[in-house]
Write the C-alpha cells for this entry.
Amino acid sequence: MADLKLDQIRKSYGAVDVLHGIDLDVKDGEFVVFVGPSGCGKSTLLRIIAGLEDITGGDLMIDGDIVNTKSPRDRGIAMVFQSYALYPHMTVYKNMAFGLKLANHDKSAIDQRVREAARILQLDKLLDRRPSELSGGQRQRVAIGRAIVRQPKVFLFDEPLSNLDAALRVQTRIEIAKLHQELKSTIVYVTHDQVEAMTLADKIVVMNAGNVEQVGSPMQLYHHPQTRFVAGFIGSPAMNFTTVHIDAVEQGKVTVTVPGGAKAVLPFDVPAGDVGKDVELGVRPEHLSPGELGDLSISGEVDVVEKLGDSTYLYLKLANGDRFTVRAPGHSRIKIGETVSAAAEAGASHLFDVDGKAYAKLECPPEYSADE
Amino acid sequence: MMTKNIRREDMSRAVIVHAILLTYTLVALYPIFLVIINAFKSRKGIFSAPMSLPNAETFSLEGFTKVLARSNFELFFFNSFTVTVVTIVIVLLLASMAAWALSEYKFPGNTWLALYLAVGIMVPIRLGSVSILNLIVELGLINTLTALILVYVAQGLPLAIFILTEFMHQIPKDLKEAARCDGVGEFKIFFAVILPLIRPAVATVAVFTMIPIWNDLWFPLILAPGDGKQTITLGIQQFIGQYVTDWNAVLASLSLAIIPILILYLIFSRQLIRGLTSGAVK
C-alpha cells in the first residue's frame, strides 16, 4: 500500500491534447474515484497510472518513487478491467496464480494467497472452473481476486461494474466497498456513474475535457460544487439550472430576478461589477418543495409527472422555457397542466457566473453543508 | 405461414449446398479411392478392371512387398517426415512471433514490413528456382534435407504470417494489458497467453503449410535428388519408367504415403476448436 502523486500530468496523441496538466494527491489507503462524461480523459489517466500509456509530460509518483518510465509490472499496481480480461484457457485458480507463479513465488505461498482471496470473494467453490463457465458477476470477482493476490501498492479499477446488470451492480458495489474496508488499500476507481462515485469514494475527482474540475469528498461536491459542470454532474436527478438577472449587490447579499419576475435575495459574494449581468442559478430537485413559498420561489407549468412511489418528480416549464425538476412527496396529487410554485431556502441555492464558476456562498445552513 | 415458407427456403438451400459439397467431396475422393483399391490388386487386375474392387481372384499385395523389398521406402518416408515436421515447427514459431510483433507493437515501417511479407503470398517461390539452386550450391547444401527445409520455410512463412496476424488482431487488447499489469513479461504473454488462444489458427496454418511440402516434387528433384535424400514423392518416381511403369508399386507407395499426412492432419484438426476465447471478456 502506498500513496500516489500526480504532478502536472499531460498526455497528447499527436497534436491532440487529452490531459492538460493533472495534479492529484492520493493518500495511503484512500479510495479515489475518477468520474466524468465519456471522453473526459479519466480512463486515459488511469491507464497512465497503470503504465499502459506513456506520459507526455509531468511526473507520476507511487510510494515516493517517480515511475514515469517504469513498465506496469514494476509499478506495484494491479488493474481490474471493465471487460474482466480473464485468461480464458486457465481455471479460476490459475488465473489468480498466474502472475505470482511467474514472479517465482513459493508454491505454498501462492496457494495460501489464492485461497485467501477466494475466501474473501466467495470463489472457493469455483476455483476449478474456467471463465466461460462463470456468470458476469463471478468473472468480475475473479478479476478482482487476480488483483488482490498480487498485494499491490495501488488497485486500479476501470469501470468494473459497467458490464453487470443493475441488481448485480449494486451488490458488487457493496462488495467492493467492504473489500476496501477489509484491505485498507489505496484504490483508484474510474466510472462514469456518479452514484458509484458517491457511494464508494473517500475522494471524488470530477474530470471534464482533460481537466480536473474539482476534487473533494462526495458531500463536498454535492453541497459545494465549484463549477456549474460539477453541480450538474453530481446528484441524481441532476441539479436544475436557469438564468437569473442580478439586480443589486449589498453586504454579502445579492438580489436576483428569477424567470417569471419574482425577486430573491441570496447569500452570495458577488462583485459589484456583475450587477446587471445574467448568471446561472442552480437548485437541486430535492431541495425544492412544491406548493410553498420561501426565500426563493419559482413557478411553472407541470409538463411531466414521474411517480416513483416514495417520491414524485414534477417537471416544470418555467416562464423562460427552462425545465425544472421538483421532488414532491410520493402521495402528491399534482397533475400535468397545473401551474405549480416551488420554493427553496436561500442557503440551498447555487449561483454560477458567466464562466460557470460558483460564487462563494456566505452563509450556509448545516443541512446544506458538508461540514460535520 | 411466413415462418413455414422461410423454413422451407432454408431447407432447400441447405439441400442444394450439401448436394454441391457432397459432389465435390466425391470428385475429390474418388481418385484416392481408386489408388487405394488398385494398390491391393494384381497387375492383371489393375489393367483388366481398374474400377472394380479387389476380389479373391485379383487381390494381391505384390505392390506392397515390392515397395518394401526393392526400395528404400522407409528412408524416403523418414526424409519426407523430417522435412515436413521440422518445417512446420520452424514456420509456426517464426510466423507466430512475427505476427505478434506486427499486430502488437508499433514501430517504424510496421505496415511496409507486413506488406513486404504479404507479397510473398502472391509470388510463387518456384519462379526463383534457378537462383535458389545457385544459392544452395554456393552454400554447399545441395543434396541435403536442410536445403529443402530452408526453402519450404521461406515458402510457408508469408501465408502463415498473414493468417496469424489477422487472428492476433482479434485477441482483446484488455487481455494483453491485464497480463502486463499482472507482471507477465512480453515473452511469457506471447507463449502462455497468446499462443494458447490462437491454437486453432496455428493448427490451420500447420495444415496449410504441411500439405504442399509433403506433396512437392519440384524442390526435392532439383535440390536433393541424391541417393538417400529423396523424399517420398521423388522416391516413387523410380517405379515410373519411360517404357514400363510398375503400377503396383506406384499405387502401393502412394497409398502408404497418405498415412502419415493423414495422422498429422488428424492431430492438427483436433486443435481446431472454435470459441476458445469465449469467457475472456464480457
About this structure: The CA atoms of residues 200 and 275 of chain B lie 9 Å apart. The interface with chain A takes residues 172, 174-175, 177-185, 188, 192-193, 196-197, 276-282 of chain B (CB under 8 Å).
